[in-house]
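Action item from last week, closing it out:
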Amino acid sequence: MVLGYKTLKKLLSKNILIENANSQNIHSSSYDVTIDKYILVFKKNKKPISFIDAQDLNNMYEEINITEGYTIKPGETILVALEESFNMPNNVCGSIRGRTSLNRLGLTIAIQHLNPGFKGKLNLTVTNNSINSYVITPKIQIAQVVFEKLDKKVKKEQLYFKQTKASYQNQDGKQGSMIYSDYVGKVVRHFKGNYYYIEDICMDSETKEYTIIYKNLYNREDSNIWARPAKMFFEEIDSSRKDNITGQKHRFELVNDLTIDYTKQNKNE
């Protein structure tokens, strides 16, 4: 069931759904979200970027303050931070969609889903598909969000903030893609044959490098928990090197099962 004007106004007045809502943005069955003063612009990379390279993924954006305006050129794609700070209850989800007026200018806004339990700010992907350039400024009503009540409340353990990969919870809207977090909770195989489980991805407080936290899925005496820089974790290796008994192309590679026992005595990876 889509939430209508009266319900939206009541919930928004209590800081539910959106904590900093503007009553003038409420419509019969939607709420217009507005642009904040920051956008993320894509920086061109000389080499292809892997989805598992956290460092390169985080370095592919340039944050720009658009208080004085930003000109989005034909064919350009940017990430626009939203002013709204969402506060989703456990029985409502949302869908952010482009506005008709902007669609008719050739500006495409990618659909964004809001999960029950999500809290924080988001950014939207905006692409200029027209032959004209447009000036983007803060406060523009860039899209509309439609809220829908679920048929049943979601169990607490199923809420967004309870998920292992709740990458964007409590974000400020200026975070780029964190697709590499999809690898948390996955099993990988080292080129020497042993299997490991990715526990988490963190940032080194000194070097600011992303680091993979992982544990071995076999018995060894020195340690069960390990940390390795993300760049090194999935780096390419020579598939013909003598100790590469799996013949794989990367130091660690994702696996779907543990059926192949390459080795039982490797102790030093």
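Closing note: Residues 5-162 form a domain with the Deoxyuridine 5'-Triphosphate Nucleotidohydrolase; Chain A fold (CATH 2.70.40.10).
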